[in-house]
Amino acid sequence: MHTSIEDVISSLVLRSSFWAMTISKFNKRETSEKTFLMGVTFNGNDVEFIYNFDNLKMLHLDILDKLFAHEVGHILNNHYVRALEKNIFENNLNHRWNIAADMAVNCNIPNFPKSFYCGWDFHTIFPEQEGFEDGLLTEDYFNKLKEDEEESNDDSENDDSEEKDSDESSEDKPESNADSEEGEQSNNESDDGKDSDESGEKKTETTGSDQNDHTHWEESSKNSKDPNIGYIAENIFREVIESTSREYTQSFGSLPNDLKVRIDDFIAPPKLPYYEIIKKLVTGSRMGKQKISYSKLNRKRMYVFTEDDELVSHIPPFPGKKNDVTFKIGVVLDTSASVPITDDGIYEALNGLESILKNDSNSEIILLQVDTDIREEKKLKSIKDIHRIQIKGRGGTRMMPGLNRLKELKVDVCLVFTDGYIEDLSSFIYSLPKKIIWILPEKGSSERMIENIGHIVKFPVSDL
Ligand SMILES: [Zn+2]
User: Fold this and answer.
1) Contact, 40 vs 26, CB < 8 A?
2) Which of 68, 137, 158, 376 could pair covalently with 369 via S-S, beta carbons 3.0-4.6 A apart?
3) What's the CA-to-centroid distance between 317 and ligand 1, angstroms?
4) Whole-number Cα distances in Å, 47 to 24, 315, 347
5) Ligand 1: centre distance to CA 125 (Å)
6) For residue 258, what pLDDT band results from cuts at 50, 70 and 90?
7) Which of 58, 7, 8, 50 is nearest to 32 (CA)?
């Protein structure tokens, strides 16, 4: 019998468990929720490992290691963050998402137990229980579950309580949606699956299935008022995974290949809204030397694909929070550029910075309008002030006056909206502000003059 959670974790770390090593970095919170075993969530600041030691201590270390792998698997699959992005909690689709997430995780853990005893018979979830194949994406399982559900709803049209079950109608339909899913989807693997016509509101809390390890996801998303919680969580998850894999390699040698691939994937997220990229760059205390060399943007979905792993992996969520120093963001508008810098484009691009302005009273944006010289200098208190800006100037283009001014003002980062047809900056390279992010329209711009200076983010331009 184990004596404490620390005891469990260190025993497994001694057996070179990557999973236990990862969990060792989380905040631990013990709960006395009777039917709870363990779960990982994000509390707004830290990753939290929640556990009920009374239940957990009954398990053999081998099982515990698999369960740790399960919890870290959710992080590697970004299940919490993706649930936020998909508005899973708001639409009360968590139950379906939870099952899909567990399917995706469990079938990838070798010899993951089908059940075990921890005070009750705990049955875990596998794709095969629903007749699905292994190795699909969480979204695939999610959609398959939805299809099945719709089919079985068609079959039982007389069941009036659960008939209008669909994504669209679920907004105003709390709980019952999830309950019906549990009844229909996981009957055979959970002893609480009973009969769904009891429609007990508490059903999700009874247990026997694996999903109660996600109950705190919803809680944390609902408790958080920060609209950026997903983004913050993702950054912190990434930091933890990255530092664990570094330490693991130092202590035990290289990671198994498949795990290494997964970790590398996780550390380099494939897509981000482009303003998030700008935000990450802005808030980055350590910007890499590389630029975002190739960023494709799609106006409608605003996703950007970056090849730059380094860039996004080291960046803490908010600037100036720790040291409580002012954080100055300089923005240069190249008003001579033949790009629609005044339309919603620039507003959108800067929108990602709104939360910084709001949440960090020490931050400010200084906006310069520049053509051949500075035409206006203005402090913005809110991103909305952008709309009140009158565009001044329309001459040729020289960026140095603006950049010099920002250097003088000691800004922490500069965002330059331009088409890139500017003077040759190569001889000024040492007198430029340190961190420059060039924001160019996707079409009709040139990177030639700025190629080796700072970062380049492409900006979507609507076809007019
Ligand atoms: Zn789970």
Assistant:
1) yes
2) 376
3) 26
4) 11, 17, 33
5) 9
6) confident
7) 50
Separation of CA 71 and ligand 1 centre (Å): 6
- Residue 62 token pair: 């081998």
Residue 281 pLDDT > 60, yes or no?
A: yes
For residues 263 and 245, is the Cβ–Cβ distance under 8 A?
Answer: yes
Helices 229-252, 61-76: crossing angle, 10 deg rounding? 130
The confidence band for 287, taking pLDDT boundaries of 50, 70 and 90, is very low
Count the alpha carbons within 13 Å of 64 in the hemisphere toward its beta carbon. Answer: 27
**Over residues 240-258, mean pLDDT:** 91
- Spatial contact of 441 and 419, defined as CB atoms under 8 Å apart: yes
First-last CA distance in the chain: 70
Residues with CB under 5 A from ligand 1 (ion): 102, 213
Q: Ligand 1 centroid to 40 CA: how many Å?
A: 9
pLDDT digits (tens, 9 = 90+) for 193-202: 333 333 333 3
Mean pLDDT value of segment 151-170: 53
Q: How far is the CA of 66 from the centre of ligand 1 (A)?
A: 11
Domains of the chain: 5-144+209-266 (no CATH), 274-289+324-459 (3.40.50.410), 293-323 (no CATH)
